[in-house]
Amino acid sequence: MTTSEPMLHADTVTLGYDRHTVFTGLDLQIEPGTVTTLIGANGCGKSTLLKAFGRLLAPSAGHIKLGGTSVRHLSARAVARRLAILPQKPLTPAATSVRDLVMRGRHPHQTLLRPWSGHDARLVDDALAATGMTELADRDVTSLSGGQLQRAWIALVLAQDTPVILLDEPTTFLDLSHQLEVLRLVRRINADQGSTIVMVLHDLSLAARYSDRLVVLHEGRVLADGEPWQVITPEVLAAAFGLEALVIADPASGRPMVVPLEPTTAGAAESDSTELASEQSDARSDVHEGRRASQAG
Amino acid sequence: MSGRRGVDLRVIALPWRARVLWITLACLAAVLAALTFGIVAGSSRMGVADVWTTLLGAGSRTYQFIVFELRLPRVAAGIGVGLCLGLAGALTQTFSRNPLATPDILGVTSGASAGAVTAIVIGGGGYSVGASLLGFGIPVVATVGGLLAAAVVYGLSWRQGVDSFRLILIGIGVTAILSGLTNYLLVRAQITQATAATQWLVGSLSGVSWASVWPLAVVLAIVLPFALTQSAPLEINQLGDEFSTGLGVAVQRHRTLVIVAAVVLTSAAVSAAGPVEFVAFVAPQVARRLARTARPPLIASALVGAALVTLADVMARAALGTEIPVGVVTAIVGAPYLIWLITRPNLKERA
User: Fold this and answer.
1) DSSP string, B138-177
2) Do B245 and A115 touch (CB under 8 A)?
3) B185 contacts: CB under 8 Å, gap ≥ 6
4) pLDDT of A290 over the 70 cut
5) What's the CA gap between B249 and B243, in Å, rounded?
6) Closest residue by Cα to residue A1 from A77, A79, A69
7) Domain range for B133
8) Residues of B in contact with A112 (CB under 8 A)
9) Total number of domains constituting chain B
10) What residue ranges do the domains of chain A occupy?
11) Are A46 and A222 within 8 A, CB to CB?
12) How many CB atoms lie within 10 A of CB B14?
């Protein structure tokens, strides 16, 4: 793989189910070592695109390329050694310990004569440690809380030991502190292992806070694509979600934060919002300067 | 819950769970015990020691005749039928992720029944003819009927791959049609034919000989090792089809292979002994509860099936006085045990 090749490339793909087409001729590239989040309204095709990247859905036209090779020409196992995907609703098996669950992540690397090895066991231990599940390793998965179970699923995907990880709504059904825990874990995996991560999230502020790049999907096309401050703007929010909202700087992270407005008070809030808006533009220019500085360095 | 342990010998590395291992060995012991009882039970008296000395080649000529010619074929057929049905049940319940999905829903059993009853009613004049047909004609017709019905169910379920729910619903529909056909034939048949057909439909080991055992042995020798290679994908598939694909399982190919294996096993069992009821449903569930695993363990399920059929046949022959077809007894023996396992108050994990 040459450095010019994107990690993942949706090369003018047409995607859909049966006769319902979601995307026509969509083109999107994912750069190695980045955290990219797909956002958009319900039904905009975020999960459809993620499934196509994960070879769960074959495009009816065009190619999904993994490191330059069309996944159509790769076996499920060959893809699974390079790309892990956590689907939206995995089934929780009965009578299975956390360790046994995470062990299944090693399947793509195992062969008929070697369905298990010491190397597998070590990677499973590492995945359990990275997700803070070591002490729960012998617990039955059906007895875990929502947050613990989600960490167990992420541990499984980590044990797969792939350069690319796709996560479909990894924070759904979790309370705020567990959502933060999962997203911090995602950032840590990205930082420690240089993994390329693509995920689907619903919470825009959290997406902005923990992603390098946001891709807004709307009506079968990419409506906006770029760094959080470029993408999270009142105009994009209005177009993609029909949402009237302010975008302010998150005081904790300096990233954009979405504050929805009430339809009836939108006019009244305008005068108050001028102050916020100026703050926002300050914060934005700070961030822009910061970015320029980091790019220069 | 004990986790997985393993040995790594460079070329080959195997994981095991202690509980699954010893439950499997216990099931094997149960099968050997059932085999012994199956040979002991009969009109001429034989002790357990006599049985084993004869089996190991040191018995008297009389004992050798009784064991190898009279009793062992029937017991061996019972074990073979039980292994096939137990394994087929484990495969079907696992791939469909549904404990109620027995190989019956694949259409094999009802197709075989319809085929066999057609042959008996149209082809056979009376019970004696039906009985002689059991030697050759009926098993062949039953196999053909079973495979045809399974092919129809599979073909109708296919829509860009086979979805388990679709397969089950179509299987139930096809089974209902074939049962209707079978019942129609029974109602229209003469009383002797109807009796012969009913005897077959309940599932019986009374007509078996070594000729019925060999096909079972061949099928098991081919399908059992093959089924074991699908063990890991079956386990992965408990996480759902999408996760399985993500973990490198070629889901549709795997599913087709598992269905074909279950169909061949069931077809072999049904053509040897008729549709022995309930074994394919109960054996995997019993094995799973004993081993406390996420899915029915394959080998243990087969062994529980073998023990169940053999013990039920002993009871049908000996304990109840008059000879009763084994299929009548399997449910009476198997169901209470399963119910007891499920309702045991101290069981950690529930159905």
Assistant:
1) HHHHHHHHHHHHHHHHHHHHBSSSB-HHHHHHHHHHHHHH
2) no
3) B114, B117, B118, B121, B197
4) no
5) 9
6) A69
7) 18-343
8) 229
9) 1
10) 1-82+162-226, 94-161, 237-297
11) no
12) 14
Q: Look at B8 and A117 and tell me if their CB atoms are within 8 Å.
A: yes
Judged by DSSP in three states, B291 sits in helix
DSSP bridge partners of B14? B7
ipTM over 0.95: no
8 A C-beta contact, residue A259 and residue A249: no
Residue in chain A closest to B7 (alpha carbons) equals: A117
Residues of B in contact with A80 (CB under 8 A): 246-248
Q: How many A×B Cβ pairs under 8 Å?
A: 110
Q: Amino acid identity of A112? A: L
- pLDDT tens figures, B60-110: 888 888 888 888 999 999 999 999 999 999 999 999 988 888 888 889 999
The beta-carbon neighbor of A76 closest among B15, B235, B249 is B249
Question: Which residue in B has a C-alpha nearest to residue A139's C-alpha?
Answer: B1
DSSP helix/strand/coil, B251: helix
Question: What is the topology classification, in CATH, of domain A1-82+162-226?
Answer: Rossmann fold (3.40.50)
The number of residues in chain B equals: 351
- Considering the domain boundaries, does residue B329 fall inside one? yes
Are B233 and B249 in contact by the 8 Å Cβ rule? The answer is yes
B262 belongs to a structural domain = yes
How far does A237 lie from chain B, in Å, by closest CA?
Answer: 31
Categorize the per-residue pLDDT at A159 as very low, low, confident or very high, splitting at 50, 70 and 90.
very high
> What CATH code is carried by the domain that includes residue B33?
1.10.3470.10
Q: Which residue has the tokens 């350069």?
A: A163
Q: Residues B153-173, buried b or exposed e (16+ Cβ, 10 A)? A: bbebbeeeebebeebbebbee
Instruction: Please give, rounded to a whole number of angstroms, the shortest distance from the CA of A116 to a CA of chain B.
Output: 6
Residue B135: its H or E element? helix B127-135
User: Do A76 and B245 count as a contact with CB atoms less than 8 A apart?
Assistant: yes
Inter-chain residue contact A91 with B245, CB threshold 8 Å: no
